[in-house]
Amino acid sequence: MRLLEERIRRDGIVVDGDVLKVDSFINHQMDVGLFQEMARQWHEDFADAPVNKILTIEASGIGIAAIVAAEFGVPAVFAKKSQSINLTGEVLTAKVTSFTHRRTYDVIVSRRFLGPADHVLIVDDFLANGCAIDGLVEICRQAGATVEGVGIAVEKGFQPGGARLRGEGLRVDSLAIVEAMDPATGTIAFREG
Ligand code: G4P
Ligand code: NA
Ligand code: NA
């Protein structure tokens, strides 16, 4: 998506060879107009899919998921990262190991909000190793829901998550795929699509 690539080039900050900071428009301050354009793109790309629910993981997926849900006219559900006292009754859970943060945590969704009738579009801000997406796919599997696809804002194409998930047969629709970043010059190369 040209608009997102241009924005990353303009306002993204290459922190080192593999971390990209986008906190001025995606995951701290949010450019909601940009989110709406992203949502329109995914809505167009998944026009053939019977999506009736958007699923993401807290925290930074939530803003994107809310705007995507408005575009599709369906609810958004976010997986919580640890057991919450607000969640009573049966829950769906999966373990996620974050390589970036070197920790493992549980993700949790109430069974009340995900079930066999659901056709899910998973969305998130970043795709690196794909462990967060694995957790959300596992939660959908436990729910008996159908995963229609995965919408990612920024995929880091030099990390293995995207290729692995596509190899597993998932439809992964990344709006910008960064192939390489040079912290010395701030140069960012995108995969041509
Ligand atoms: P993975 O899910 O693809 O395996 O990613 P990984 O564990 O390596 O990364 C964990 C967290 O780091 C995720 O946020 C992910 O969005 C974020 N992340 C990964 N690469 C980058 C990057 O280059 N730039 C930025 N800004 N974030 C990156 P999280 O732990 O879920 O935290 P939250 O911010 O959503 O609360
Ligand atoms: Na995230
Ligand atoms: Na994040």
Automatic annotation (TrEMBL):
Q: Which CDD domains match?
A: PRTases_typeI
Q: Catalytic activity annotated for this protein? A: XMP + diphosphate = xanthine + 5-phospho-alpha-D-ribose 1-diphosphate
Q: Which pathway does it operate in?
A: Purine metabolism; XMP biosynthesis via salvage pathway; XMP from xanthine: step 1/1
Protein keywords: Cytoplasm, Glycosyltransferase, Purine salvage, Transferase
Entry EC no(s) = 2.4.2.22
The residue ranges of the Phosphoribosyltransferase domain are: 36-154
What are this entry's molecular-function GO terms?
xanthine phosphoribosyltransferase activity
| Residues that coordinate or bind xanthine | 20, 27, 156
Q: Which SUPFAM superfamilies does this entry report, sorted A to Z?
A: PRTase-like (SSF53271)
Protein localization? Cytoplasm
The family database entries (NCBIfam families) matched by this protein are listed as: PRK09219.1 (NF006671), XPRTase (TIGR01744)
Known partners and oligomeric status: Homodimer.
Q: Which HAMAP family match?
A: XPRTase (MF_01184)
Q: Describe its function.
A: Converts the preformed base xanthine, a product of nucleic acid breakdown, to xanthosine 5'-monophosphate (XMP), so it can be reused for RNA or DNA synthesis.
Protein name stated in the entry:
Xanthine phosphoribosyltransferase
Origin species? Olsenella absiana
Lineage here is: Bacteria, Bacillati, Actinomycetota, Coriobacteriia, Coriobacteriales
Gene name, per UniProt, is xpt
